[in-house]
Amino acid sequence: MAAKEEFFTYKQRPLVRSKDTIYYGRMTDPYVVMMHIKSTKEQDGQQVADQISLQMISTDVTVPPDKMVIRRSERQGLYQALDIASTWLDRMERDGAK
Predict the structure, then answer these.
(1) Tell me, what's the pLDDT at 7?
(2) Residues 6, 24: Cα–Cα separation, whole Å
(3) What residues in the chain have per-residue pLDDT under 70?
């Protein structure tokens, strides 16, 4: 039996990274946020994300590709990107519950 894979989380949502792209949210939810790291900078001897492009995308496979992107933004730094992504997903959950 395969072991359950654990992911890093932020505000109880998983973060999955593949090279310069980070997916935030659960693929079983209606939306996730895709963050693309456009540039990095050196801080205390390590490379950290600097400029990040965000897209909230639908996980519904029946949605046409040109309608999958719901929101777009750019943020400076990973914390600001995660903060706005979390806000977007919180709002979509709240509004979807009505």
Answers:
(1) 84
(2) 14
(3) 1-4, 97-98
Q: Token pair of 89, please?
A: 């997903």
Residue 11 · residue 86 · CB < 8 Å: yes
Phi first, then psi: what are they for 62, rounded to 5°?
-85, -10
Identify the bridge partners of residue 14 per DSSP, sorted by sequence position: 9
What tokens does 86 get? 């979390």
Kindly state the DSSP code that residue 93 receives in the 8-state scheme: H
The type of residue at 19 is: K
- Which neighbouring-strand residues pair with 57? 32, 69
What gap in Å lies between CA 70 and CA 37, rounded to an integer?
Answer: 19
Residues 70, 88: Cα–Cα separation, whole Å: 10
